[in-house]
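Q: Hi! First time doing this. I have a protein sequence and I read that you can turn it into a structure. Is that right? Here it is:
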Amino acid sequence: MAAGWIEHVFTVKNNIEGALGRTGTITTPHGNIQTPAFIPVGTKATVKSVLPEALSALGAQAVLANAYHLYLQPGHDLIDEAGGLGTFMNWPGPTFTDSGGFQVLSLGAGFKKTLAMDAVGVEADDVIAPGKERLRT
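A: Yes, that's right. Below is the predicted 3D structure, encoded as structure tokens:
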């Protein structure tokens, strides 16, 4: 195993006979997640209007954050200074981040654009919405 690699384990508990459905446990260094799981999304490291204690009381086992939104605000330096995403969020359990790829396209290079498979004759800057600027190139 590579240095710094953290092993995550998924253990199947129950299978639905004749179907693909199953339940199980995802084991992480920050706690176990029983599947299927309620995992709310905290876009900028917070689930709007819900305290971490309330999330736990509601049955959340983990929180997902969006990598691109975190990059834009508050930024990776601030999250690192706080001791990582979980500490920054005041969430003691497992956290996930998505790739942020959709947001990079929709809010960055593709913001307010109509995407097409054929871009013949169209320059990149021709398709930026009026009053908007490109957030990434």
